[in-house]
Amino acid sequence: MTTAPIRVLIADDHFVVRRGLGAMLASLDDAFVVVAEATTGVEAVREAQLTTPDVVVMDINMPVLNGIESTRQLGRAVPAAAVLVLTMFDDDETVLSAMRAGARGYLLKGALQDEMVAAIRSVAAGQVVIGPGVAGRLLSQLTAPQPAEPPFPQLTSREREVLTGIAQGRSNGAIAAGLGLAPKTVGNHVSAIFAKLRVASRAEAIVRARESGLGGRTTEGS
Predict the structure, then answer these.
(1) The pLDDT value given to residue 145
(2) Is 139 exposed, middle or buried (0-12, 13-18, 19+ CB in 10 A)?
(3) ∠117-19-44 over CA atoms, to 5°?
């Protein structure tokens, strides 16, 4: 059986890139066919709807509509088309934005022909491809330890400060003086804290706060 060629749309605002990539694909024994070219993100979406490619090779920096937004729109308009980003941008924010928008692959311009061909085949088959130039950094970011969530995320930062004062055994007046607030304001914060933590007394609030690591050795009036 003869395998149907992979249908490719090339979206890049640089003529040399489009024609160079097209010529490279055309030289590969009918394994690929370029069904359309686009010079803007808007054209990429329109041409994809008209030609239903298997793969869209997408630049990031294009006029009218950038490659990330174009990728997002393609996901809705032509969900069967796999987007392979081919760009000069290798910063973490751009890589993550493109993948979140729905791109299945991300390669840097300058990738070897074999890498490009393998990437197009892979995304057409439903796989995810990240070029070696960005894979290491992306993996590092994804596996980096996340900052610990503060205790009692339902509280505002000011309420946590007030709760810390309560856990330290301070009166509302002392907390107000330490934070530069009016005692009435602190009283309002205390009421909100009790409601959010579902506690009925200052003693219960102190226990909850200290169990979560808030408070210290500071005593009343300090």
Answers:
(1) 65
(2) exposed
(3) 80
The residue type at 147: P
E strands, 105-183, are 105-108, 129-130
Question: Is the predicted pLDDT of residue 142 greater than 80, yes or no?
Answer: no
Q: Please, which residues bridge with residue 38 across strands? A: 11
Residues 24 and 196: their CA atoms lie apart, in Å, by: 63
Cβ contact 34:66 at 8 Å: no
**Residues 163/155, Cβ–Cβ less than 8 Å:** yes
The torsion region of residue 180 among left (phi > 0), alpha (psi -120 to 50) and beta comes to left
Residue 108 has pLDDT above 80, yes or no: yes
pLDDT for res 125: 94
Query: Which has the closest alpha carbon to 116: 12, 1, 192?
Result: 12
Is residue 177 within 8 Å of 208, Cβ to Cβ? no
pLDDT at residue 221, as a whole number:
44
Helices (H) and strands (E) in the chain, counts: 10, 6
Q: What amino acid is encoded at 213 in this protein? A: G
Q: Tell me, what's the pLDDT at 24?
A: 92
Predicted local confidence at residue 130, as pLDDT: 87
CB distance 48 to 78 below 8 Å: yes
Q: Which pLDDT belongs to residue 220?
A: 46
